[in-house]
Amino acid sequence: MGEKVYRLNARRLLCPLPVIRTQDKIRQLDPGDILNVICTDPGVLQDIPAWCRINGHAVISVKQENGDICIRVKVGHP
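^ that's the sequence the OP posted. Answer follows.
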């Protein structure tokens, strides 16, 4: 089957909404799936990686471009 890649648009949302939306979306995904979270709030640079560490998910990459922050998360096992 392989991993599936999903996208979450959390632009213009302020803390804690990007983390809450990320959490809600990941609950719908399977372990090994990839979620690309697109944000504009710089707080996500600390908040999403911290949430991932606590909940067993892995941040694969963080990119900033044209005011957007893209955090690529690999879904872990519950």
